[in-house]
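Students often ask why inverse folding is considered easier than folding. One informal answer: many sequences map to the same fold, so there is more than one right answer. In these notes we will look at a single instance of the problem. The structure comes first.
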């Protein structure tokens, strides 16, 4: 049996122009939001989801900021003919940078909506309070205008003097700093000294990615990242012979774990909001990969620690671990 521990702090959310650029162009991101008279929304961004659930996360941000149903929000990503500038999806930067731009654009719209509500209710802007999906007059909650009512009013002529119709906004977000998700993982493995097979008995992962916008999506990303960490630590490699010929030319030779091989992941979290992100959110998708690989590897090495072993090359496939057992002579008795 071996026990592995890994604690980590990751650096994600590439974006600060002062620290990150490509050929001098900043890695900031932007979001354009258009609100229709009926309260329907179209949001356009320069990121591109590969299964992370961007459409759900961005829609949830907008729904929370504007009090409009997420089901009425359409998110369009990655169309360079339509979307404003964005540096794309990589390095766990979508929520730290594009998510922040989305929140800022939504807040611009809400501030314009506040002015319209004050006009309709014939009060000062400072006399209004925001409650979930409407502006109410302080001390008189019966006097209110919902966002859907305001959306319709924004496309009519009943507006404050000099205000343009519509509820549209574009926001650019150049983050003042990167974000720093962190975590602590513990893994317990059992090693069969006769076959070299490694089985994960238990794996506990605690992550802190700041404000958790959609916990279900976060859990899915952590499970996926841990499964890939499991694959890297215990089997994935690109082997070559002495002549440089690739010996793993197909997925028959490359370890892609399924539900059969993958252990049960025990996940947990703490919440330490990012001090500069509008929502306090950090990246998360790569964290379990960062922390999971050394955690599993440390557990395998620890199983041999009583024999003086302090290092074993990854991946810890059954054959390679058996070779270690054989070299130590523990596979014969």
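Output (designed amino acids):
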């Amino acid at each position: 049996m071996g026990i592995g521990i890994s604690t980590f702090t990751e650096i994600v959310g590439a974006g600060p122009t002062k620290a990150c650029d490509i050929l001098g162009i900043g890695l900031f991101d932007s979001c354009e939001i258009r609100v229709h008279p009926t309260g329907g929304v179209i949001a356009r961004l320069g990121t591109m989801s590969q299964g992370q659930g961007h459409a759900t996360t961005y829609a949830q941000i907008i729904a929370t900021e504007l009090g409009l149903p997420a089901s009425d929000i359409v998110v369009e990503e990655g169309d360079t003919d339509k979307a404003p500038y964005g540096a794309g999806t990589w390095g766990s930067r979508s929520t730290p940078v594009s998510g922040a731009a989305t929140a800022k654009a939504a807040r611009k719209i809400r501030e314009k909506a506040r002015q319209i509500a004050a006009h309709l209710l014939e009060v000062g802007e400072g006399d209004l309070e925001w409650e979930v999906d409407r502006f109410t007059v302080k001390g008189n909650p019966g006097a209110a205008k919902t966002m859907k009512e305001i959306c319709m009013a924004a496309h009519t002529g009943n507006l404050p003097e000099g205000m343009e119709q519509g509820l549209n906004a574009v926001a650019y977000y150049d983050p003042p700093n990167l974000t720093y998700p962190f975590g602590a993982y513990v893994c317990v493995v059992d090693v069969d000294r006769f076959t070299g097979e490694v089985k994960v008995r238990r794996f506990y992962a605690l992550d802190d990615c700041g404000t958790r916008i959609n916990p279900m999506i976060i859990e899915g990303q952590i499970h996926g990242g841990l499964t890939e960490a499991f694959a890297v630590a215990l089997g994935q490699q690109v082997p070559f012979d002495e002549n440089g010929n690739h010996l793993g030319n197909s997925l028959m030779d490359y370890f892609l774990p399924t539900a059969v091989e993958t252990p049960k992941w025990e996940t947990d979290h703490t919440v330490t909001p990012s001090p500069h992100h509008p929502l306090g959110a950090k990246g998360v998708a790569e964290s379990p990969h960062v922390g999971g690989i050394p955690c599993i590897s440390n557990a395998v090495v620890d199983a041999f620690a009583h024999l003086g072993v302090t290092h074993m090359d990854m991946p810890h496939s059954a054959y390679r671990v058996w070779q270690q057992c054989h070299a130590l002579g523990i596979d014969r008795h």
